[in-house]
Design goal:
- The complex is a heterodimer of chains A (288) and B (184).
- Chain A has 288 residues and is an alpha+beta fold.
- Chain A has three domains: 8-59, no CATH class; 69-138, no CATH class; 156-283, Sandwich (Immunoglobulin-like), CATH 2.60.40.
- Chain A contains eight helices and eight strands.
- In chain B, 66% of the residues lie in helices and 0% in strands.
- Chains A and B meet through helix 1, helix 3, helix 4 and helix 7 of A and helix 2, helix 3, helix 4, helix 5 and helix 6 of B.
Chain lengths: 288, 184
């Protein structure tokens, strides 16, 4: 004896479950029912319905709102952490103590919103777990290649020199402003538009207490609203630093770099600078 | 161009990552806002979606569709998963706003993605009430039961409208892509 339904009716029931999965998800009981009916065909149909639902979503998303800039910056920081975890580059990125401090500061600027709801220690623990989880999740497909020898990371200064030697790299001199904190400051920015990498180079920039204030780089993009320059990263200057080289970590894609500015901000940096304390400025084309 | 963007992301290219956020951020944010219960949920969801994109970029196959559809699929999966894990609260948009979705004009939707144009053409052939069911379900994240209740429509009719609408869009996409008719 069999309780199988007619073929057409069974197909319709399967299609209804597939469509429900695509539109609102299935309950455990429905998922089990689909598993029973499941086949390679059902799996292919599911993908096609997903494509159709996505296409309708696109057709109904005309005039979508812009991504909030602060969220875009959090996404960029999260992406950096994700890819650093994959490549094991967290340690390699420690080009200098300044670079590490700057990365930590960047994390403080823009933690994921969910992280705001737990303590700082809790966030760090969660972030560590997440990185381990991501790394663990990605581990199985990776071990096909030969072992890679770990090499010493080049210093920030060496990386800057290599970038300068690359064609297409921009170099913009930074000039001190009349802000008291800017006295004696000189430097430049080296930026490669193709790879979106770059370095700041300073001498004479006063040491800061990270608990009181931090420096922040801003990149003015000719393609963006000039009221909202791209965050180029928060950084610190230790006492007696002399000449320093600091990696830039732009939070967003910079399409047409036009100018660079360094401001003094509260610890962790600002999402939108008040520009009360600008200590260095440089514009493309204004200097050699 | 877009295919190589996802390939570059799969290779860990940080410039491509920023380009992707720039290019698709509004799309993901739009989907997240519609299918989340609160603005903060939408922000969390957007971060989860982009993490999924970074993880899945290597699986993108341009022969299977555009990058936009690939990303919209990832976003929808994540958002639906989040919706199921949360309680049966209403979506964040008030009822009045549910009528406000802006459908792309079939003639111009190709600027968004070829699949959007195909969907817009298929939707244009549906009756208004069928289109409304798809809109409430796909754009605003209402369940079939919620749609039935809101439109005072039998659940069976909602299911039927949803089924026919999705099959029609799917068939348009299949015919355009391969010149063959759909299976079901």
């Amino acid at each position: 004896m069999t309780d199988k339904r007619p073929q057409g009716q069974q197909d319709e029931a399967t299609v209804d479950l597939l469509i429900k999965q695509v539109t609102e998800g299935l309950s455990p009981a429905e998922q089990r029912a689909l598993d029973v009916m499941d086949s390679a065909t059902a799996s292919a149909d599911l993908r096609e319905f997903e494509r159709a639902a996505a296409a309708i979503t696109l057709a109904g998303s005309a005039g979508a709102p812009r991504l909030p800039p602060a969220l875009a910056q959090r996404l960029a920081v999260q992406a950096d952490e994700h890819f650093a975890a994959i490549s094991g580059a967290h340690t390699v990125q420690k080009v200098t103590d300044l670079g590490a401090a700057r990365a930590a500061a960047a994390s403080r600027i823009s933690p994921p919103r969910a992280a705001n709801r737990i303590s700082a220690y809790g966030w760090l623990a969660a972030a560590a777990c997440l990185i381990l989880a991501i790394f663990g999740w990605l581990r199985p497909p990776l071990p096909t290649g030969p072992p890679v020898a770990r090499v010493a990371a080049p210093s920030a200064a060496e990386q800057r020199a290599a970038l300068l030697a690359k064609s297409g790299t921009l170099k913009v001199a930074l000039s001190a402003t009349k802000d008291p904190a800017a006295a004696g400051v000189a430097g430049d920015v080296v930026w490669d538009p193709a790879t979106q990498r770059g370095f700041m180079h300073f001498s004479g920039l006063a040491a800061n207490d990270p608990a009181v204030h931090q420096y922040q780089l801003w990149i003015f993009d000719g393609d963006r609203d000039q009221r909202y320059p791209v965050d180029g990263g928060v950084f610190d200057v230790p006492a007696n630093a002399g000449e320093i080289v600091i990696p830039i970590r732009a939070a967003l894609m910079v399409h047409k770099p036009a100018a660079f500015a360094v401001t003094v901000e509260k610890p962790g940096g600002a999402v939108v600078s008040s520009r009360d304390h600008v200590v260095a400025l440089g514009a493309l084309g204004a200097t050699g | 161009m877009t295919a190589s963007l996802l390939q570059r992301i799969a290779g860990g290219d940080s410039a491509a990552v920023r380009e992707c956020i720039d290019q698709y951020g509004a799309l993901v944010w739009s989907i997240a806002r519609r299918l989340s219960r609160t603005p903060s949920d939408a922000e969390d969801a957007t971060q989860e979606v982009f993490l999924d994109i970074w993880r899945s970029a290597g699986r993108f196959d341009a022969s299977q569709g555009s990058a936009k559809v690939f990303i919209a699929m990832i976003a929808r999966r994540r958002l639906i998963d989040r919706l199921r894990k949360t309680s049966a609260e209403p979506p964040m948009e008030p009822v009045e706003a549910l009528e406000a979705a802006a459908w792309a004009d079939p003639g111009t939707a190709s600027e968004t993605a070829i699949e959007a144009e195909q969907a817009a053409r298929a939707l244009a052939e549906l009756r208004p009430e069928q289109r409304q069911v798809l809109e409430l379900g796909l754009l605003h994240g209402l369940s079939q039961s919620e749609i039935a209740s809101r439109l005072s429509m039998p659940l069976g009719t909602v299911k039927s409208f949803m089924r026919r609408g999705l099959i029609q869009v799917r068939d348009y996409m299949n015919i355009d892509a391969e010149g063959v008719s759909a299976r079901v």
